[in-house]
Please model this.
Amino acid sequence: MHLGVDSFVSQVTDPETGIMVGAADRMEQMLETIVRADEAGVDNFGVGEHHRAEFFDSAPAVILAAAAALTKRIRLHSAVAVLSAEDPVRLFQSFATLDLISRGRAELIVGRGSFVEAFPCSVWTRRTTTRYSRRSSTSS
Model:
């Protein structure tokens, strides 16, 4: 059996002060969490992807690359990479590079995403997807 953790880097408030934790401090907390998970023997850790103001994880491959430099054995994965907001080739290249940095500890998990805010980030627009759909149906 393998044990893994998936997380997001969302805005949080400090439970003692009630003050919102800054973005850089929150990112540092996430990296510390991944390091502690590695030290505790957790098998894998995934960072999700969001494109909303209250989340700081719009580039999981970058976060996981930073974690790779700080950890030894934990496998690092997307939880999940949002295909509607990514160019598939660039996504593959980012995670292939992460796999090199982590010495084979990267895993890519993809999905559709659950918020519409990511769609305008995409290379796929309504016009291109409609055009692609028409081409696909006429060529079949």
Strands lie at 4-7, 44-47, 75-78, 81-82, 106-107, 110-111. The longest helix spans residues 23-40. The longest strand covers residues 4-7.
